[in-house]
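Exercise: predict the fold of this chain.
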Amino acid sequence: MKKVIFYIFLILCRGLAAEGTAQSNFRQAETLASQARFSDAVYHYRMAIEKNPGYKDAHLGLAQSYFELAELGRALQSLESVFRMDEKNTRALLLRGRIHTRLGNREKALADLNQVRSADPGNPQVLTALGDYYETEGKSRLAFDFYRRIVQNHPAHFLALLGLARHYAREGRSELALAHLEKARRINSMHHRFHESRGLILLHAFVKSGNQDELLDARRSFLTALELSPDNPALERHLYRIDLLLGDLSGALDRASRLYERHPEDAQTLALIATLKARQGQKTEALSSYAKFLKQDSSDSLQRFAAEELALTELPPLHAIRRSLAAYHRTRRQAQGRLMRRDRAFFHLERENLLYPDSPAATALVEEYRRQGNHELFLHTLYAARNRYPSEKSFHFQLENFLSRRNDYLPLRENLLAHPSLIHGEETVKRQPWPVFPVDFKALDPLQSPPGSEEILPEAIGYFINRGGRLRAPPASERRALLEEFRQMKNRKGPIFYSAELSAFLEQRRSRTRYILTGSYLSFPEKLRLEVDLIERNSGTRLVRWTLEEEGQDALYLLGARLAEKLQQVVPLQGNVVKLRPGDIFLNVGSLDGLVKDKVLDVYRGGALRGKVRVVEVATYVARAVPEKTAADRFQVGDLVKE
């Protein structure tokens, strides 16, 4: 009996010793976490859990440390252990809501945070997390309301004060931003979040003023924050984006590469690596990085567009990467078709066929052009499909049938499309669209915008402009070469925004540049907001300003199409007489330029009005008109036609 009691006593002593060691590891981990030494803290939390697998607070601490290290998958795994022990644990729900906020899982994040709020409505931590959630979503007014409510009840709440400071900085209210930052400094000037917020406030000041001293000061703040929290990947991301703004591309690439080695789940860092490698001419490596990125984050339409444009120039049509990029558009086309959104489905069909021109895509595109009455692109696409798939008899039959009825179609009847082009949107009738030059767009929040989007965004807009109509943007390669020449000539680094100097430079290099597109943007998960100015280059006058916003995976594509449509409505219609026939005058403007039947146009020669014509038949690129109260012999080929 005594032996049994002895063994029980021995087991209890060992259990108490193990529990004491687990508590010792836990306390050490807590101390390290308070010093922002999260990697070291992880080790001691894990040791505590190894000695006591049911140590709930250690699992929570481990999850929190993984969250701070941006190892969000591991953080969620640690929280699963907590929920097995306590499925309604508010601390765990709060942390999971913050993790889903960081991951962009909006519905899950809001569900967790609202559950905590229902259980504890006055908890300032959940209100702060909700403020951070709405700040990430771009709903700054809602975020502001949460931060303000916390400060009203808890005037010395450190994180809420920083949230208010960031909000006022975004609104350009620098005095209020600095006042709240000063209150936070008095509470804890050695916290990394204080120095991070100071850097963000300085960055917003730089966006407004363009003063590089503020950008350098922001960099110093982020470096100080990194010293206080050396394992913090968010701060590393801030710093490589500062490098981008300073024009230090190699520094940005080195920092991003080191960060990605430690955090291969960091999709945005991978996107930056792809962008910078493409700029440095490492295009194969860039495409490989883009492919990995899009597997991790398929919702970033800016980076997807950049990857597609690079693939179109660098890879053969049957390459696996081009096939996977086309597959995305096929899926989106089918989804939009089920929703009866033909215009959106049509864009995805065009991109799908451009990236991977297989027979089903070509068939669908030919049918869509036929349905739209776009006889020019119908003919061009049909020629291309017949040549690419000679065994497909349907293409031969459609082409023969179409040509046999050529008198039904204005462009064919008048031989205005004698040489069908295989290049999308390139009409063969001579046209002279207005040249428009999109400069780099200013990121209103550079640390939240996708890497390199200052350049990607205007190039995407240029693509939509070039889908047809009365405007024409330069090819991306030409645009980049011109801006790089201006950058070197003026010894400037980083993005090139609109200025009078740039306008004069474009006049020297591109004498026909008539319009300049400039603007700013805000980017959020699956949402993009643009403010665009159309500048008349000769006078420097802003003709119009638009504010546009779209949500979803197709945000960039939807905005590009909307902007191109608005430009067509604003820019005056102008073309030429391209052919004369007794009683008829043929013009190189059509429905794609906004021309409609019965529209009356003025005809000029050498600046003098020759008379008026009335449109009686309209095709995509060309139109047929008749003299309007004017003798037919007043006109000749080459005369200028205007609204």
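Check your answer against the key: The CA atoms of residues 578 and 637 lie 5 Å apart.
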